[in-house]
Amino acid sequence: MNILVISSDKSSNIEDLRKFFSGSEIDVLDQSGLSAKLLNDKLLGYKEDKLLLIDARTEKIEFKQSVIELFELVAETSDNWSLIYSDYEVDDRGEISEEHLLDHHIGRVRDNTDYGKVWVINLKKIQENLLLSNTTKRHFLYELRLRLSEVGEFVHIANRYDGSPYRIYKAVGEQNVFDYLMASKESQLELEQIVTDHLKRIDAYLAPGSFYSPVPYAQKEYELTASIIIPVNNRPKFIGSAIESILAQTVSDIEIIVVVNGGESDPTIPAVREYLPGGSKYDAATPEVHLLVLDINNIGLCLNAGLKRAKGKFYVQLDSDDQLTPDAVEKISTVYRSDDKIAMVIGSYEVWEKDNVTGDLSRMDSIPVVTHAEWTEENGRNNLLRINGAGAPRSFYIEAARDLGYLDMNTSPSARNYGEDYDFVSRMSEHYRIGRVWDPIYKVIRHSGGTDHNINRSTVDRNNNAKDEMRREAILRRQIMNEVSNG
């Protein structure tokens, strides 16, 4: 088995690896001088049929003695495989944990999917079918992984305990969904090009403008311009600020539908009733507030129940712990009027932080305005399959939701109150244009009880499983769309 190590100036154990694999020749490539041509030449130049690829750029890696025998036997007993990867151990300052990776399928096209630091590659597949693009400058392994997925099966060696073939030494930090914002524009564009080329090769790419139709009810008159629907569970301290941000809108022909899903005992209910007739904050001159109480905590159900009762032309998103800027609905409405093929509008948002003691809000300047600029007119719906977000607030024609079958209600695998909006954006984008508001019109409030940051690995994996399954379904839908279109 050939052995190739990709290293960096942070690599601390190249010599240890040489000693461990003393009976084999090891190639070492420094990432600073790595290029697609160099990696292609290496992959095509090996005489044996398997390559052990070790990514040692950021962590020290230590192997179990039986690793080669395990990999060799798995390769020998697997059919049509192109890549073998495995669970691994993590040593965090002496504390050992296990990383249980996700099983591969066609929907795992996220650029941050963890396939570990060690791969076994079937070189027969590469020599016959695969070369990296010369335009790739840094994300070689992402492109290599996608290309390998096109020509063979991925085999995952899972572990229960003490069965991982290798260990890495690192501090395991908490997961943060905003980490991707720190990637450079150049890096994002390269990743987009890689996934776009992959989608083209598997016939899941949607060409610019293809399959768009005019919105059949764009010119229809409705009782109200917008219905803002807020699903909420046990957030009495936040719901008032969310409602107030709607009452302050520059557009007045709107309504607020608060869907409390904690049953009649949910402490959010009294806070909402303050804005109903008879409440201390009720004002007949402001948009009407409706209260709907459910006793099933299912976000998709909350949104769909609100949509069934809504009188507005458009739905506008608002989470119970976030806020709209005063001109949010006005700017969203302007985008709809610009093109009758636009059935959904997605805004941009700022991230704010709430002080746990004082309750004061402050803008988090370390996080830039989240525009999701990777959503371009030409390629946004393809690039969406690479990333986990599409922006906020989201808005769409309420009748379009009814026509498309509403939002997911935890019927997708691993959903669990996660990803219902992601799935809906993907489905909507296959039929209509997605309009954008690039100015920040939404405030995401980070606080100790929030669910969008500082979440552990198991929760991240569960959430990724949900969205990856939605990606898989989207890819299969799009392949059928292209097949039918091409006759």
Q: What fraction strand?
A: 15-25%
CATH topology of the largest domain: Spore Coat Polysaccharide Biosynthesis Protein SpsA, Chain A
CATH architecture title of the largest domain: Alpha-Beta Complex
Distance between the termini: 45 Å
Major sheet characteristics: 9 strands, mixed
Which CATH class of the largest domain?
Alpha Beta
Structural class: alpha/beta
Number of helices: 14
The 3D shape can be described as: elongated
Helical residue percent?
25-40%
Question: Any low-confidence stretches, pLDDT <50, length ≥5?
Answer: none
Average pLDDT taken over every residue: 92
Q: CATH superfamily membership of the largest domain, which one?
A: Spore Coat Polysaccharide Biosynthesis Protein SpsA, Chain A
Question: How many domains would you count in the coordinates?
Answer: 2
Q: Rg to the nearest angstrom?
A: 25 Å
β-strand number: 19
Descriptive account of the structure:
The chain is α/β, with parallel strands linked by helices. It folds into two domains: 2-172, Alpha-Beta Complex (Spore Coat Polysaccharide Biosynthesis Protein SpsA, Chain A); 224-485, Alpha-Beta Complex (Spore Coat Polysaccharide Biosynthesis Protein SpsA, Chain A). It has helices at 14-20, 36-45, 67-76, 123-129, 140-151, 185-201, 236-247, 268-273, 299-309, 328-337, 380-383, 398-403, 420-429, 457-485; strands spanning 2-7, 26-30, 50-55, 60-63, 81-86, 88-92, 95-99, 118-122, 153-157, 166-169, 224-232, 254-260, 288-293, 312-317, 323-324, 342-354, 361-363, 394-397, 433-446. Helix 5 runs parallel beside helix 6 (185-201) and helix 13 runs parallel beside helix 14. The mean pLDDT is 92.
